[in-house]
Each structure stands twice: as C-alpha cells, then as structure tokens.
Amino acid sequence: MIEPRNGSGTPASAPRQGFAMGSQDTASGKARDSAEADGVDEVLPPDATVDLAEVRRDTGVDDVLAALDRDLVGLAPVKARIAELAALLLVDRTRVRFGIPTPRPTLHMSFTGSPGTGKTTVALRTADLLRQLGYLRRGHLVTVTRDDLVGQYVGHTAPKTKEVIKRAMGGVLFIDEAYYLYREDNERDYGQESIEILLQVMENNRDDLVVVLAGYADRMNSFFRANPGMSSRIAHHITFDDYSVDELEQIGLLMADELSYRFSDEARETLRAYLDKRVEQPWFANARSVRNAIERARLRQARRLLDRSDARVGRAELTTFERADLIGSRVFSGGAAAVAERGPQDAEEFAESSSDAS
Amino acid sequence: MRITQGTFSYLHDFSDDEITLQIQYCLDNDWPLSVEFTDDPHPRNTYWEMWGLPMFDLKDAAGVLMELNACRTAHPDHYVKLNAYDARLGRQTTALSFIVQRPQHEPGFRLERQEGADRSVRYTTHAYATERPVGERYARS
Prior knowledge:
The complex is a heterodimer.
Chain A: H1 27-36, H2 52-59, H3 61-71, H4 76-97, E1 109-113, H5 119-132, E2 141-144, H6 146-149, H7 157-168, E3 172-175, H8 191-204, E4 210-215, H9 217-226, H10 228-233, E5 236-240, H11 245-258, E6 262-263, H12 265-280, H13 286-307, H14 315-319, E7 320-321, H15 323-327, H16 330-333, H17 335-342, H18 344-353
Parallel strand pairs in A: 1-4, 1-5, 2-3, 3-4, 6-7
Helix pairs in contact in A: 1-4, 3-4, 7-8, 11-12, 11-13, 17-18
Chain B: H1 16-28, E1 33-38, E2 49-55, H2 61-74, E3 79-86, E4 93-101, E5 109-115, E6 121-127
C-alpha cells in the first residue's frame, strides 16, 4: 500500500483512530480529517507514486460495478455515471494520501424517465453502492412522496419534512414523483416550504445524505424550471431511456429466473412476439409491464396445470411457461387496441377487470 | 457547582464527535433518542421540557445531532440532555441519558433546614438559580 520510503508501518486502509462516525469511515470524513488535522495520517511526499490499480483492487469497486452490470439490463447512461463516481472516489482517496484538499463531491441526483424504466431499482442499488464506495455511512433508502413531506395545515410541513430528512440521514432520500411538490396553480401550497427545507439540507448536510428526485421527464423539466435552485444543487441529471424489445426480453427472462420459472423455446418466441406488440400499445410501462405479463402467465400456467387431463406434475412442468400461457393474453387478440380508442378511464377498468389485459 | 446527573456526568463535557459516537451506539441498539431541556435541574425534576418528539426509525447519528444543535441554539443557557429509550419487552425504560449542554455558570444548591416538632429537622435542597423566573435562570448578564 504505502511505499517503503514513507517509513510508516500502517497501511492507509487500516482503521483509523479518532472520531469517525460509526464503523464506516467515509471518504469525506477522511478528507476533512486530513485537511483539519494534518499529520494524523502520514502524507505522501510530492514525488511519490501510487498504483491506482492496487487501490482499485483494495476497495472492491470492480465487484460492485460488475454486480450492477449483471443485475440490471440496459441503462448504459446510468452505469456510466456510477462508474464515473467510483473512479472519482478512487482518485479522491489517493489525493487525500498526498494531502491535497479534497472536498466531497455533490451527489444529489435526479432520475427522469418513463414509468417502469428502473428508477426506484437503481436508487436502491445506488444507495448500497455509495455505501460500499464509502460516500454514505449507512446506505439505506428512504422512499417518500409528497404525502410524507408536505403537511396539511400551516406549521405542519416543516416538522414533517425534517423528520423524513432525519430518517434518511446517512443514506439516500428518494423522492418519487418529485414534481408534485410544486403546484404551479397554487402559490400558497405548502409544497414550496418543503422544497425550501430540502434545499437547505441539500446544501448544509451534503456529507450526511444524498437526495434523489425521480419523476417523468416532461413534468420534472417544468419542476426544475420553476425551481432553479433545486436544479442547480443537483449535480447528476440522469435520464432513463425506454427499453428496447431486446432488453425487455432479457428483463423478462431475468424476472422469470428470479421467480424460478423458465420459458420453453416456443414460449420464448411468444414472449418476444408479445413484447413486440405490447410496446406499440398505450400505457406501456416498460419493465413493469413485463412483470405484470409474467404474473399473469403464472396464473394461466397454474390453471393450465390444474385443467390438464394428466394430473401428475413434475418439477419441469411446475417451473416452465409454455406458449399457451402467453398466447392467452389479450394483446394477441387485439383487445387492448380497442381500448386504446376509448381512452384512459376505460383502460384502467380494463386493466382491473381482466387479468390478462396486457 | 457542577451538576452530576445521568451517565458520563463525572467526565469532561463531550465534544460533538464524542456525542455522535454515543448516539450511534444507541441507534445501533435500536433505542430511539429524544432531546430534552430545562432550567430547573433539581434532581427530583424528572420532567424536562421535550424538544420535539422522540426520534424513531433513525439510522444515522447526524439526524439526532441536527435536532440537538437546534435545541442548543434555541436554549443556549439551559441544560440539555439526550435520552435513549429501550422499548424491548422486559426493559421498556430509559437505557441511556446524559447531559450534553449545561449553562456556563452553575450557582448550585443551598441546603435548607426546617425545624419540625420535637426538635426534628427536615432537609431540602434549593437551587439558587430557581430564585429567578423561568427562562432567565441561567441567562448570561
């Protein structure tokens, strides 16, 4: 770790004495400590060199990134941004060893994208990741919406928002559908108060929590236009693109695998055909639609197994989707297209009333 | 006279970092914390003013410290303490309680003797500070 000429026997990764919070010694904590109390850690001489590849191995960053790549399909921009953050962490750590002042980067993010593009899933992973990378002390995710932040009468909002913020300290505060916080048509809406408190905390408690705002792209854009302060405090605006059919298929296979199901070859082709049709239809919610399709396939599969003349089943039958389990969907019979013409209210009912709507 | 109540009261006053470590210990044990303050530190005064509600579901000490600092700013001349409550069945009591702020000058207590019947004497303590009205007791003049 430390080159011999340094003369210090302690590797930099050894647990440090002092008042680091909890067991996780954060990168920012280290940065602050070394800036304030010089000489606690041996500072490398200016002409020393550090092997970044070695630092990389020691922090286990690659495992974290590989796991992310394996578990999430597509989402190239998101993965790229997280890889950048990981790289920054490594560089920052090394900077600290040279005694260069290294302020903590701003990590507040906004996730914009269509429904079902994985915003919440990624937020959950990010929280965990930032903890492993040493940016967060706890790495838990607190998911809230407008209801949890905004009060119902004067003086109710501030304590409510503060309580949520306190719970999120050390982790990620994920504000879903964040644009609801601001109501253009009502100047006296309490949402504004909540936004102001959030802004203050995002500025003052940057070391303690990461705020992630999520929502649909167009509405989030108008939200940021109305709250420029919010937009400027967020360093990472990440856009979640819609999935391609290939990616959706892969997601479907992954989801089925998690539920311990597999597709027969025929069923796989049918899944593909189903997705081709489904993406064209209204109220398509990307991965969420795939999950719903699989849930309904499970129902149909269960019924198919019960209705069979031969009532004896083995492991293979119980875990395999056949073509019939998917072809039963109304997507193939053109039912959803008819609904599309009638409008969203009907669509809601349609989705409610028929389990095989999409 | 330095008041010694609660845990750690014979130690030096804690720094924020030391308080943070204690808070984190409580949170790691699933003890919700609350902040209380008073300017009547009589040992029998168990009911201090609450600074907000007890804080549940917190994971990290920074949240508690934020409230604590808010309380200190609002009441710079009061005693402030942190209570940690252990809600487990069979314990259900304050698990840790310690003073995190005290006024700069603590005048202390006077011992009062009350003559009773048959030359008996009843003893009681009286805080000098409580001779002044609430809110001004430890004010820096």
